[in-house]
Amino acid sequence: MSTSSPKKRPAKRPPPKPKTYHHGNLREALIAEGLAVLAAGDQADVSLRELARRIGVSPNAAYRHFADKEALLAALAAEGFRRLGAAGGRAAPADPQQRLNAQGRFYVGFAVENPGLFRLMFGGIVPLTATEELERASNESLAVLQSSIAAASGLPFDDPKVVVGTVWAWSLVHGLAHLILDGQLDAFAMKPDVLVDQVLALTRGRLATPQRPA
């Protein structure tokens, strides 16, 4: 009678280790993860503890870069304004009206593609004066549009008519962006780019070329 040795059971593999953060700039990593959470449409999860958990660092490590949630949100909003201003500055066809249209299309497109970030930037969730970084980024973003209005009108950057023209153009595209985000223009069945072009076309001449002082 032969006997066989019992078969050995395969050793259990250890559970996978959680994602950890090993190198690089932790502040930038927290901002990148925060932007990813906003892109998923859940502002409630944008907290330092949650972001620290997602990238595998301790909450204390995250708090060394941001004092509280408002500081984190201000940094996220500042990054949004930098992206908005940088891309708007690249939308620069030679024709002044075409340049304004291109910037308007990008502004609305940015809002449609980044609704969570856009609402954070403009929804009063964090004051634009909360940090120097945020205030500077928002001002520089608006200056891109103001420069285009000045170039189109032939007036100095800080001319009162240029300032008014900037507010006018911004109000148009900002209002369009919110109406589109809230689904208020769905009945028109028009693409955002077409809406922007046609609305801005109504202002052609008056917006691009404010009347020169006598």
Can you offer a commentary on this structure?
The protein is mostly helical and 214 residues long. The protein folds into two domains: 23-66, Arc Repressor Mutant, subunit A, CATH 1.10.10; 78-201, Tetracycline Repressor, domain 2, CATH 1.10.357. 60% of the residues lie in helices and 0% in strands. Helix 5 runs antiparallel to helix 9, helix 7 crosses helix 8 (160-181) and helix 8 (160-181) runs antiparallel to helix 9 (192-201). The protein is globular and about 55 Å long. The chain starts with 25 loop residues before the first helix and ends in a 13-residue tail after the last helix. The protein has helices at 26-39, 48-55, 59-63, 69-90, 96-113, 115-122, 132-153, 160-181, 192-201.
Please give a handful of descriptors for the protein shown.
214 residues; mainly alpha; Arc Repressor Mutant, subunit A; Tetracycline Repressor, domain 2; 2 domains; 9 helices; 60% helix; disordered C terminus
